[in-house]
Amino acid sequence: MPSLRELLPTPIALAVLSMAGCGGNTPMPMPPGGPSPSPTPITASAYILPNAVSLNDRAFGDEPIVIHQGERLRWVNVDAVTHVIVADSPDATDFRKTDELHGGGEQSFVMVRAGTTGIHCSIHPNMTGTLTVRN
Questions:
Q1: What whole-number distance in Å separates Cα of residue 129 and Cα of residue 85?
Q2: Which of 15, 16, 43, 78 sits CB 3.0–4.6 Å from 72 for a disulfide?
Q3: What residues does each domain of the chain span?
């Protein structure tokens, strides 16, 4: 019976087998500069403003939050208080809700579906705004 060493191919045999198994002598063309990375979505930041609880419908600024399909929506809490942002119409866009965003916390979502929804803080319902995802 052959030993394990006799059954294993030699390094030269492995090299020949690996070259033969490549399916041809023509190497795959590479784009200039190497393989291209997958595209990173543009990030649009939406801020929960300082003292947001007292700002009511201006807790997210004085204009609706508007981003485009394919962009990353990044919620940033610059307030000292914890907030959870929730979509009023969860089927209108891809955004449903954030986790608890403590002071300085942030969370991101890639938005694919266009639409408009009201938003509010589930902890502080007087904090309201509008989120629009455009084509």
A1: 10
A2: 43
A3: 43-134
Name the burial class of residue 59, with classes exposed (0-12), middle (13-18) and buried (19+) by CB atoms within 10 angstroms of its CB. Answer: buried
Q: What residues form DSSP beta bridges with 97?
A: 86
Residue 100's identity, in one-letter code, is: E
User: CATH 2.60.40.420: does it fit domain 43-134?
Assistant: yes
For residues 67 and 44, give the distance between their C-alpha atoms in angstroms, rounded to a whole number.
7
Contact predicate 54/70, CB 8 Å: no
DSSP class of residue 32 equals T
Span 14-42, average pLDDT: 54
Please write the tens of the pLDDT for every residue from 81-91.
999 999 999 89
pTM of the predicted protein model = 0.70
